[in-house]
Amino acid sequence: MPTESLPARQHVWIFDLDDTLHNASAQIFPVMNQAMTHYIETHLQLETAAACALRQRYWQRYGATLKGLMRHHAINPHHFLAETHAFLTDDMVETRKALRQLLRSLPGRKCVFTNAPRSYALRVLQVLGVDDCFTHIFSVESSRFHAKPSVRGFRILLRQLGCQPSDCTLFEDSLPALMTAKRLGMRTVWISRRLCKPNFVQYRLPHVFALTHSGLKKSVYLPPI
Predict the structure, then answer these.
(1) Could you tell me if 16 and 102 lie in one domain?
(2) Which of 84, 86, 149, 168 is most solvent-facing, going by the fewest CB within 10 Å?
(3) Is residue 58 part of a domain?
(4) Is residue 5 in a domain?
């Protein structure tokens, strides 16, 4: 009796969005931070300085301001995300044509894993011209608001992808997120211009385009099923 063959294993390339696939620090993050501070001022009735300090404290403690607001102030996450990401215009996204060619050259599946809302992520990817390069867009809603670096969000992602951590390479500018990924068993790539890297980071690239000459594509190995 013939045995049904198992599907071939595929490597999964997981990319953070902001400051990984594109430069969000130049134009987007300053406006986003102002929008979040204003939201906290309005809804928690705080002065600007106190609202800014609270935003930064929650971001440092939880990896996402939203998680702190949900946990300590019962803020509606959908309302917060809609109000704080409505500012985006196409000209705020810095585009490079080489990004599409780079992504299409990677063997296996590609996924975006972001703490941003889905509507924002889709718009940025469309402006970048790479939205069709990804099989999954995993937003903060997809993680049930367990934003990176929460291990729960990572586990939900892996279930949706139907893969093992050892199948995955994560490209990310956030060290706490990379630490979670490494603990789970993913290969970790830090997008940073800093020279010293912690031991849970396996590779450091100054920008995502350096992947082309890094040899990372050739070093992918999937153990047999």
Answers:
(1) yes
(2) 86
(3) yes
(4) no
Instruction: Find the domain containing 45 and state its range.
Output: 28-84
Q: Write the single-letter amino acid at 134.
A: F
pLDDT in tens, 142-186: 999 999 999 999 999 999 999 999 999 999 999 999 999 999 999
Whether residue 225 lies inside any domain: the answer is no
Q: What domain count does the chain have?
A: 2
Q: Which residue ranges in the chain fall short of pLDDT 50?
A: 1-3, 5-6, 225
d(CA 30, CA 28): 6
Buried b (16+ CB within 10 A) or exposed e, 159-196: eebebbbebbbbbbbbbebbbbbbebebbbbbbbeeee
Number of neighbouring beta carbons within 10 Å of residue 72: 12
Q: Do 148 and 63 reside in the same domain of the chain?
A: no
Element (H, E) at 37: helix 28-44
The reported pTM is: 0.92
Q: In angstroms, rounded to a whole number, what is the distance separating the alpha carbons of residues 178 and 176?
A: 5
Residues 6+ apart with CB under 8 A from 34: none
Phi, then psi, of 109 in degrees rounded to 5: -90, 150
Are 101 and 212 in the same domain? yes
